[in-house]
């Protein structure tokens, strides 16, 4: 499937690109606003199966918010009307706030009308997705969501303050991406949206932060628990890389002993591998799975790269000084045996392996 996408550089854009990559879709970026170029946009949209419009303006003066959202919609509408082969479907990432009394809500509603009219004029199906509050890995604190702000502050050892303890409808960005890409029906989005108060979210994040401080895995008994934990632990990569947890290795005349993983609840599976000298394992990423690597014997390098980035993090690991490294979601990763003998590695995952739904996608580091 060919996907054309606006707003690819934003928070939801990152998650949508990652989901598209996992599904094997090809993706073309459509630039709007000051970077808009008619011919470039038409080339990206022409012949696409689905055009997803994510780009929007939700910060700035009233004029900037209104004019920005309408400008993006008008540019895209013009492309639709002139492209030789229009997409089968136009999906608009709208907001549950569309049509309310705010300037942002009015602008989103008006943009939807512009896009729908253009789609109908060329026979393209128009899907208006009213997204609730989104959260997820690599969201920006004090900008994308209150969840990101809480995670940022808690990781820094600070105590967040609640100014307005209101009800929220929360949807993880990977679930939103699945809906936008059509791999999950729009009618199922409501069942994926979790109601929580701001104070309830903060309470759960505080428990996660306290539990995970020394590498203990918090209880993961629901998809929301998993999404919230993955969101929190992504902040161990922002801005410093603090991934390895040192393990307490005890040694005496009988040999050595150390704990690999403590989990407070939920599924889990432990696996073991040997890796010959010079061999690399991995070269894949996960969208939701928590996966822990612990080298028991030998020396190795664990390398990982955030999707769509060129920066690679590298960690030297040695069984004589064991550490646990949890692979961040949406980062492709690998482990390479650097020693002259077999490498012994233990792996822990938060779920029982299902070969029909492995949440494992090939991508070179």
From TrEMBL:
Residues 3-180 form the NAD-dependent epimerase/dehydratase domain. Pfam families: Epimerase, Polysacc_synt_C. InterPro entries: CapF_C, Epimerase_deHydtase, NAD(P)-bd_dom_sf, RmlC-like_jellyroll, RmlC_Cupin_sf. Signal peptide: none annotated. Residues 251-361 form the Capsular polysaccharide assembling protein CapF C-terminal domain. This is NAD-dependent epimerase/dehydratase family protein. It comes from Pseudarthrobacter psychrotolerans.
